[in-house]
Design goal:
about 260 residues; alpha/beta; D-Maltodextrin-Binding Protein, domain 2; 9 helices; signal; Amino acid ABC transporter substrate-binding protein, PAAT family; Iontro_rcpt_C; SBP_3_CS
């Protein structure tokens, strides 16, 4: 009986100690909630078919000037960045429905677009250029495009220039700039009208069967697009852009992708 009593007593002691341990563990967990980074989220989008501004590299990763730019701005302003790839002609609808907070996608600031969205301060100066096959000596510029078939990316200022240069029925629209350029390479289009830096980068990547002709058209400025009702986002984007220009980060990103100092 003494042995049994001692065994029971020992068991009760162990049980009591276990309950105390559980109680202590519960209090300790209550003092250590899941960590919170405290960062606000910035949902940004781009059409990742527009090298060198935004595209997919050989490993499937989204890269480009605009992605580095918006990442630097987000870091500067204390945002956690989330990126989405959306077709260019779907960007403004996505902004208007607040599906995204901003778009850094080589979008030219125009009066028409400014009615639908707000734009940041300009961050890049560009213009349109005509691209033709290397052996084509008939097309020397935009004035030679009347009646010609022109491939473009839908919703771009290049598409607007093409519609002015030839019969609209002769304009072939694609969701991506790379598709338009491939249409030219395949011989199904006489020319492409596209942003100069995109065309220059395309040739630099080994596409020597096409060339640039004529002068750069329609001096343009790119801005980061923001929904009309997200005024704080716009203010933060502008503040972040200003800071990275002042601290040299913007120049670093620019030289990485274009191999030269930023143009004033």
């Amino acid at each position: 009986m003494k042995r049994i009593f001692k065994t029971v007593l020992t068991g009760l002691t162990i049980l009591a100690l276990a309950l105390v341990a559980v109680g202590c563990t519960g209090k300790e967990e209550a003092k250590s909630p899941a960590q919170d980074t405290g960062k606000k989220k910035l949902v940004a989008a781009a059409d990742a078919t527009f090298a060198p501004f935004e595209f997919t590299d050989s490993s499937g990763k989204y890269v480009g000037f605009d992605l580095d730019l918006i990442a630097a701005i987000a870091e500067e302003m204390g945002y956690e960045l989330e990126f989405q790839s959306i077709a260019f002609d779907g960007i403004i609808p996505a902004l208007q429905s607040s599906q995204i907070d901003c778009a850094a996608t080589a979008m030219t600031i125009t009066p028409e677009r400014s009615k639908a969205v707000n734009f940041s301060d300009p961050y890049y100066k560009a213009g349109q250029i005509v691209v033709v096959k290397t052996e084509n000596n008939d097309i020397k510029g935009v004035n030679d495009l009347k009646g010609k078939t022109i491939a473009v990316q839908s919703g771009t200022t290049g598409a607007m220039e093409a519609e002015k240069a030839t019969d609209k029925k002769k304009v072939i629209y694609f969701t991506g700039a790379d598709q338009a350029l491939q249409e030219l390479k395949n011989g199904a289009a006489n020319a492409v009208i596209i942003d100069y830096p995109v065309a220059a980068y395309f040739i630099q990547q080994g596409n020597k069967d096409v060339k640039l002709v004529g002068d750069i058209m329609s001096a343009e400025e790119y801005g980061i697009a923001v929904p009309k009702d997200k005024e704080q986002i716009l203010a933060d984007v502008n503040a972040g852009l200003k800071k990275i220009k002042e601290n040299g980060k913007y120049a670093e990103i620019y030289k990485k992708w274009f191999g030269e100092e930023p143009r004033s």
